[in-house]
Amino acid sequence: MTIASAPFDLPDASRSVETIFSSAAKKKGLALQFKIDDSLPMMLSGDKIRLKKILNNLVGNAIKFTEQGEVGVKAHHLPAQKRIFVSIADTGPGIDETQIETLF
């Protein structure tokens, strides 16, 4: 697998994922929230396609398995490591502890 590195607009990538899943979240009565920290530069260098695929998979699963509450995506800057940290949190049941190692 080759990972590309090119400049991309993080807010734009985030909005496209939000657009894909906003109606599914709304149908289930879930709040879908995307928060990009103001300290993050708008333009990043990385693989936009892979990032969007990962976000699509994680957000899609979060919505699928969450019956009530919310799904939140947050991104912030880790300046010491020149990286961003993206987290997806939901109010769903979670993954059984015995299955975590198998999945990840």
From TrEMBL:
Keyword line: Kinase, Transferase
Any Pfam family hit: HATPase_c
Assigned EC number: 2.7.13.3
Superkingdom of origin: Bacteria
Known catalytic reactions: ATP + protein L-histidine = ADP + protein N-phospho-L-histidine
GO molecular function, one term: phosphorelay sensor kinase activity
InterPro entries referenced in this protein's UniProt entry, alphabetically: HATPase_C_sf, HATPase_dom, His_kinase_dom
Any one GO cellular component localisation term in the record: plasma membrane
Range of residues in the leader sequence: none
Residues of the Histidine kinase domain: 1-104
Protein's name in the database: histidine kinase
Organism: Oceanidesulfovibrio marinus
